[in-house]
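Protocol step 4 of 5: obtain the predicted structure for the target chain.
Materials: sequence only (see below). No template structures provided, no constraints applied. The aim of this step is simply to have a reference model before the mutagenesis design in step 5. Sequence pasted as it appears in the construct record:
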Amino acid sequence: MDSATVHRILVTGSADGLGRLAADTLLTEGHEVVVHARDPDRAEALRPLVDRGAHLVVADLGERDAVRDLAARLADDAPLDAVIHNVGVWSGRAVMPVNIVAPYLLTALLPDPRRLVYLSSGSHYSGRPVLDGVDWQGRKPGSYGDSKLYVTALAAAVARVRPGVLSNAVDPGWVPTRMGGAGAPDDLELGHRTQEWLATSDDPEALTTGGYWYHRERQEPHAAALDVGFQNRLLGALERETGVAVE
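Step 4 output (structure tokens):
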């Protein structure tokens, strides 16, 4: 365990894949973990972690009202020290609602966590720094690459506007999960370790902010993610869309 401090950590999308592995590891290390599933059927997969002491929340993060309700429930519970914004979808109409609107709303509505980790992807390099005409509500299929560029820029923007918060984005690699597919070439174990490290460690590198990480190595993201003008336009678009500001 990198840190002697016990942290209370929300891991969204923790019913399987990288989220499940991160939640399992953090629980094993002695942290207080809040696990999340989309619906009661998916929540059944988390019973072993709940039996070991994890706290379960259920919410469809593709639905804004559900995200707001989840934020209200979490705000009424014990304070969170960190959030790993792990949940994500590869394709379809839920891409924008789940991959960027949900983490934005949770960030805006949960101002207390001091560490925020956003799951990006190498696909963010193919994203377009264009906000005109984005279908935030998911009436049509969204671009995965665009959504991951937006969430990478969001992580950098939060690091700038909330100087007391450690906000970072992580590329877990193309790993063999349900989303990545069985033939994915990257290391599944390394795919979740950086998130855990950034959420809990007292290592000097883990106490930095505004980074884009791959296997504990800081990388250079898409230039637009670090462009303050683009960050501000993104924050403005999401504030207009949701009625809530990240401050």
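Step 4 remarks: Strands lie at 8-11, 32-37, 55-58, 82-85, 115-119, 166-170, 212-214, 217-219. The two ends are 32 Å apart (CA to CA).
Proceed to step 5.
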